[in-house]
Structure formats: C-alpha cells, structure tokens
Write a structure and sequence with these properties.
single chain; alpha+beta; Alpha-Beta Plaits; binds (R)-mevalonate; HMG_CoA_Rdtase_bac-typ; HMG_CoA_Rdtase_cat_sf; NAD; 3-hydroxy-3-methylglutaryl coenzyme A reductase; EC 1.1.1.88
C-alpha cells in the first residue's frame, strides 16, 4: 500500500507570485503541476468562461486567483403567500429535491392561509477584544470618560448610516477576566438598516479600537503598565441573537389529512417528529440541515453571506446549552401550529446584492424587499423546506420524492442519451427509483 502511494507521489515545490500570473498562466501551472494526468482539465475549466460579456471580468474582480466560474442552478419556487402577499422565491442550489419541495410546501400552505412572518429585532453586534492588566475600576472610569470621544471618532463613518436611520446604538465595557486573564471587550451594538453592515461595523470597531488605545496612553490616572492596552482584534460577531425573525403557519388539524392519514394522526406524528429533533442532537442537526436547504438557497440567490448565516443560526440552535431543533410544533384546541425563530443578518443593498446580475434580479423578483422583508422571506423558505422534509419523512419516507428528483443525475452519471432519458423518465413515473434500478433499466434498453 505504502509503495503504491509513493509511486504516485509528485514532487511539488511552492510557487511564489501565483496571483500575478494571468488566468491562462495559472491554468498552465495547475495543469502541469496537479492535473498532469487529466488531458481534459483545461477544457473543463475554460468551458465556463464567459468572455464576451462583462461578466467574466466582474467575476474575476470578486476574488483573487479566479480560474473559472462555478455555476449552480438558479431556480424559482412560486406561490409563497407571506403576510397575505404572494412571492415567487428565487433559489440557488444544486440539491435535486429542494426547489420542488419548497414549491410543494408553498402551494400547500397558500391553500391554508399562508405563512405569517415578523421581525422581532434587527440589532447587530461587534466587539473590540483587548487585554488590560491594571486596575479594573480605573479602566471603567476611563471608559466612561472616553465613551463620547469614541462615538465622535466614528462620526464620519456613521454619517450616511444615520441618515438612513442606523448607526451605533450602544457601547459597553465588558469585563471577561473570569473567562480569561486580563480580557476585556468593548461590546457594541449597531443598526445597519438595509445593509448587512459587515464593512460598516468593522470600520467603526477599528476606529473605536485605535481611539481607545491612543487615549489610554495619555490618561493621567493610568500608571505605565495600565497605559498598555493591547488591542487583540476588532470584528463583528456573526452571532446575532438580537436580529431575529419569526415565521409560522397554522391551520385546523383536519386540514392536514394526507395520503390516507387523518389530519389528527398527521399532526400528532409531525409534533412527535419535532419533539425528537428538540431532544436528540443527532436528529436535530439533520433536521436543521433541511431548514438550511431552504435558507441557504435564498441567501445565496440574493447575494448574501451564507457562511455568516449558517454560523449564526447553528450557534442559535445551541443557545440553551444543547444543540436542538430550530422549529417547533404543537396542536392546541384542534389547531396545528408550526413555527421557527432564527437570527438572520441580511442585506438588500451593498455587498454583492447589486453587483452580481443574478442577485440583482433575484431581489427584483422579490419586489426589491427591505432587509426586514428579506429576513421574513428567507425564514419562510426555511420553514417551508422543513415542513416538506418532515412531511415526507413521516409519510412516504424521504427517498421516494428525493430519488424521483435525483433520477436525472443518475441518468447523467450513466451518460444516458436524450432518448434514453425520455423512456426511463416515463418508466420511473410508476416505479421506485434507485441507482441499481436505473442501471438495470438502462442495460435492458441498451441491449
Ligand atoms: C436532506 O438534504 C435534508 C433532510 O435530511 C432533512 C431532514 O431529515 O429533515 C431530508
């Protein structure tokens, strides 16, 4: 085994100045260094170029060392009735069944009064993390005396944001020395209106940090060591438990009858499935992953930062000390209720939202929503996705619908022709899809 591994080991030396090479030179280097065995490598990478529109240059300017473009399907889930307004929701996602499931859940609930959504808070957070080994009381006194100077120092940065109703909302000195020796924070809260606000928050924090450290140097009550405030870092937090949206649906249990199952039985089993996700982290993670299928797809389509959203939501799922379900359900007086509260820091201006032509059109499809409206739409997409997944799980099982949608991927894996695809799509309308069943039918067809 070891000799075998050695046989294919290639000696690679580090490259310097890679970013300075042209795109073609980068691909040359890559083809010779890591992809020498793959004669198609260049073609695979270059077939996604879009040289005749401004798009290629735009993409290359988003990030460094771009070689190609990585496409995802951009689709639409119509019929989302949210607070009595009908939306068609754009989604960017590769997983076969997600858009179909979202569309199905949207239609199901639009016939039962639709989704209700409400923004409960829009507070964003950023922190200056610093070390100070002196007297805590003196630090507190210094902070109180300098707070207005800190806020004045960011006035040029906050001017435009304040015109839009946002800005720095609050700043506190937090003593964290019980967690870590000498560790303190300036814990700041912000309102960033329709922008996600990451650049705004980080710029303010860095200005706070610089002003704070400089002022400490000349503060008369500090001794020589106390003047030494070491700024460790200044950065926004992607944990935003004060930037919360709630989405919910409800209907009489009788309206839930499905596939030979009574509405009462369906609702009771649905609630049980959610209780399992509330108490069992192994299930909760998969349950929440299903929610994120809907959330990420809309977040990505609208040019928002899905990594920030993922990090914040999963942290929120653990807020009570144990990872748990983000959604909840109950039956009360014959009424079924299904809801979710999640933190979502989103923007509909700035960032990629206006730069990426597909994000721009996604926001146009959503009728140019404010950040708060987008929070509601995204949360609803997550709730709908979870409803569809749990509904399948407790009735037919997930594979039936999932594999039907996955059929085309399997056919493509076997390089099926258009004609073969037509024949087998029709055949599998009435048969269970599995990898081996598709292989078998294809073999039959080909022989
Ligand atoms: C698959 O992408 C998502 C599901 O696993 C979610 C769930 O189990 O609830 C179907």
């Amino acid at each position: 085994m070891y000799l075998c591994a050695l046989k294919f080991h290639i000696m690679i030396t580090p490259i310097s100045g890679f970013s300075k090479l042209s795109k073609e030179e980068k691909i040359d280097w890559l083809s010779q260094t890591y992809l020498a065995h793959n004669t198609n490598a260049r073609k695979i990478l270059t077939q996604y170029w879009n040289p005749d529109s401004g798009l290629q240059q735009l993409h290359e300017e988003f990030t460094e060392n771009t070689l190609s473009n990585y496409y995802l399907p951009f689709g639409l889930a119509p019929n989302f009735l949210i607070n009595d307004r009908l939306y068609a929701v754009p989604m960017a996602i590769e997983e076969s069944s997600v858009i179909a499931a979202a569309s199905k859940a949207a239609k199901f609930w639009s016939d039962r009064g639709g989704f209700k959504a409400e923004v409960l808070g829009t507070e964003k957070i950023g922190q200056v993390h610093f070390m100070y080994s002196g007297d805590g009381k003196k630090l507190e006194h210094f902070f109180n005396s300098i707070k207005s100077t800190l806020l004045e120092a960011v006035a040029p940065l906050t001017k435009n944001m304040e015109k839009r109703g946002g800005g720095v909302m609050n700043m506190e000195l937090r003593d964290k020395t019980k967690l870590l020796d000498n560790y303190y924070q300036l814990h700041c809260t912000f309102e960033t209106k329709d922008s996600m606000g990451a650049n705004f928050i980080n710029s303010c924090l860095e200005r706070f940090a610089e002003t704070f450290r400089e002022a400490a140097k000349s503060h008369e009550a500090f001794n020589a060591t106390e003047k030494e405030i070491e700024i460790v870092m200044s950065i926004l937090s992607n944990y935003v438990p004060g930037c919360i949206v709630k989405a919910e649906v409800s209907c009489p249990v009788t309206a839930l009858a499905d596939q030979g199952m009574s509405g009462e039985d369906f609702a009771a089993k649905f609630v049980r499935a959610l209780k399992i996700a509330e108490v069992e982290p192994y299930r909760a993670v998969t349950h929440n992953k299903g929610i994120m299928n809907g959330i990420d797809a809309v977040v990505l389509a609208t040019g928002n930062d899905f990594r920030a959203v993922e990090a914040g939501i999963h942290a929120y799922a653990s807020k009570d000390g144990k990872y748990s379900s983000l959604t909840h359900a109950e039956v009360h007086d014959g009424q079924f209720r299904f809801w979710m509260e999640i933190p979502l820091a989103l923007g509909t201006v700035g960032g990629l939202t206006a730069l990426h032509p597909l994000s721009k059109i996604a926001l146009e499809i959503l009728q140019k929503p404010s950040a708060e409206e987008l929070m509601k739409i995204v949360a609803v997409a997550g709730l709908a996705q979870n409803f569809a997944a749990v509904k399948s799980l407790i009735t037919t099982g997930i594979q039936q619908g999932h594999m039907k949608m996955h059929l085309m991927n399997i056919l493509n894996q076997f390089q099926a022709t258009t004609q073969e695809k037509e024949v087998l799509t029709s055949y599998f309308k009435n048969h269970n899809v599995s990898h081996s069943a598709v292989e078998q039918q294809l073999e039959k067809l080909r022989s």
